[in-house]
Design a protein that fits this description.
Protein name: Spy/CpxP family protein refolding chaperone
Number of strands: 0
Order of helices and strands: HHHHHHHHH
Strand content: under 5%
Region (Disordered): 29-52
Signal peptide: 1-29
Radius of gyration: 15 Å
GO molecular function: unfolded protein binding
Distance between the termini: 35 Å
Keywords: Signal
Number of helices: 9
Oligomer: single chain
Largest sheet: none
Length: 145
Amino acid sequence: MFRNLNRGLAIAVLSVTLGAVAIPSIVAAQSSSTPSSQTTTQQHHRGGGWKQLNLTDAQKQQLKTLHENTKQQVQAVLTDDQRAKLAAAIQSGDRKGAWKSLNLTTEQKQKIRDIRKSSKEQGLAILTPEQKAQLAQMRAEHHRK
């Protein structure tokens, strides 16, 4: 169960780090996801974006640590009931519905936004200028689709 939860949160962190628009839609839990954010999540789930960046082993480890820290911070914002609902929904494969079903408070949404923003900034700081340029190019290509 926790393996799938970790995988779901990893996808979220990867999406944030790569600048995807998936996180605002997750935090805005009541709104529906756009086709472009679904495509982005699917692309990142396959790992295509990371492979193009040619991350070093050290960068991969730093990003993994960042992911774990971010996951812990987000989990700390949720109530026990929300964590249980999230784990059950992710286990069933319903990631989108999982976040919507949590009925996050305005305060929780803001805290999660702040955590994600900080995580994104820290993730970008791990990248080299060349990798950041590659990332910007990947974003531009994505937005043209």
